[in-house]
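Researcher: Go.
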Amino acid sequence: MTKNTVLQVKELTKFATEQNFDLRHLEYFADVWLEAGVKDISKMTRQDAERTMQVLSSSEASVEFVKALLAQAVRQGMPSQVLEYVLQSDIDGDGRTLAQEIFQDSTDPFEPDAPDVVPAIKSVTNSRNQNFDLEL
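Model: Structure:
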């Protein structure tokens, strides 16, 4: 892990220890893991992480929810290489990693911050917006 990633993991771990998730939060988290097909967080793979991010994107999860979900995953033993992969991902293709968006910017990690940025990585569409018109 890079020095920066280690600091971000420490920050997320600190955040996780400060949280006291109630039953309602844990049920929301469980719904995400279930929809992503993750049966055991401690055995997650990069593919599991990608599916989880797709679920979060399609559900329009807030930056606070993403941070809380990752904190809960840390508590449940998410493998460090998967956590690093998630934190260093740029889901919306705007050049900012997930870690930068949740720890520094507090911006939506699923939407580009600049209106003229076309997401190169994002492949998930919101199912509610299936019928849309494109203008060039």
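Model: The chain is about 55% helix and 0% strand.
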